[in-house]
Amino acid sequence: MTPEPTDAASRRVVFRRFGGPEVLEIERRAVPRPAPGEVLVRVAAAGVNPVDWKLFSGEPMHDPYERSLPSGNGYDFSGTIEALGDDVVDWRVGEQVFGGLRYEAQADHLVIDPALLVRVPEGLSLLVAGALNVVGRTAVASVESQRIGEGDVVLVSGAAGGVGILTAQLCVLRGARVLGTASPRNHALLGKLGIHPLAYGDDLTEAVRAAAPDGLTAVLDTVGHGTVDLALSLGVPADRINTIADYEARSRHPVRGVGGAKAGGPELAMIAQLLADGRIELPIDSVHPLEDVRAAYARSIEGHATGKIVITTAPVAEADGIG
């Protein structure tokens, strides 16, 4: 093993082989320095996404992400700008920012092109901002793919998950009536957010018919599990179905597959402001220190998280003001 540098003051999560959460390790390194046109961010919080563990597992994926070993881990992050490289303008040390950087987010520090950063609005904690990049972009893009608006009756599958809960609330804000599938333990939460909760199960088709007797106008699928086939059986036109989860159904039917790649900085800034203003919520399922990254992914793999799982590089109180 290569000896750690004597100035190894910065930690990062790495994996040197493929497998389960047990492959994740904490590596120490020197604090990186920003090159011209880059900034150094002191990371406060980093979100956990299912795509992360699919990448470090080595399992085949439909999306062509580049993989090589050894690798850093994570994508979503929030933090504070700690240093500026030469030629950086319009940014200052001390600004709170969030965004995404594949394979680099779960670390004490990262170096990034500031064009990829979004400022954290006043009133939004770094804890929530650190979980926002993937789910925020995906939710906005999914809702926009169907131009959801007043008069729509929308089914959102997985409505208590990170993408689903933002997707459903954005539909509500646009004036739609929203049904959301979720485990019964999350039904009270969905009801509080203006979403009509439905339980998964064999009687889901009848439950949807009872809740929306005049039919659905759109379906936004975040989990798969037969949602596309259910929607088609209920008479929803294929072009009014968007799935970010069921690649097999997309190969069989002319449904849409619009995800987070269709949204960027402006959309993230918009949804961050909605959160800061209290118009929508992103529940935090659990918070794990960087050293417990394996436990964070074990929780994600279980598949029952409400909202987002977050990793912090500092105690929770600091990370959330972190504040």
TrEMBL record:
Enzyme Commission number(s): 1.-.-.-
Keywords, comma-separated and alphabetical: Oxidoreductase
A Pfam short name: ADH_N
Superkingdom as given in the UniProt entry: Bacteria
GO molecular function (one): oxidoreductase activity
Ranges where the Enoyl reductase (ER) domain occurs: 19-311
Protein name: NADP-dependent oxidoreductase
Organism: Microbacterium sp. A8/3-1
Lineage summary: Bacteria, Bacillati, Actinomycetota, Actinomycetes, Micrococcales
